UniProtKB/TrEMBL annotation:
Domain of life: Bacteria
Example of a GO MF term: DNA binding
Listed name of the protein: DNA-binding transcriptional regulator, MarR family
Organism, scientific name: Pedococcus cremeus
This protein's UniProt keywords: DNA-binding
Amino acid sequence: MSIPASRTDDAADLLSAVLVLVRTARAVGHRRTQALGPSGTPYAVLKTLAACDARAGDLATALGVSPSVISRALVPLEQAGLIERRHDADDARAWRLTLSDLGRQTLEEQHAEYVRLFTESLSDWDDDELRNATKALIRLEQVIGEQADSFRTAHNPIPLAAPTPAAQEVTA
């Protein structure tokens, strides 16, 4: 089956836009960390631990990153008192990580501030634009995730992170 050149051009434009969005999000995340606190992987760790306690290896699997990335993210979170280590009841040799009360409060405050800032940034978008952008991004993440899972399964049998709650709501 032949793919029309216009379709390939549109896909290339979308890929370029996604790559620019990722770079922009990383740059904003670095600035946001200085102003508001954890972003990127540390923020994802806090959000994951808000849902349930986990071992470091389980966090790495859930977030689709290597264990060394998680290890580097945990040190400042623990030093800041945002997370705590507890012995695993199922395996006395292992540790489970949990969100501290300070971590939960910090996460809630930080998330509310992120939402407020993002809402202000999108003040000139109408409701349909917001909903359509959300649906498109969730669908794009699912397609990219499926492609990554297929590649990972073929080359490395470690599973990628589970779908986000927002993605699960859209597909339900």
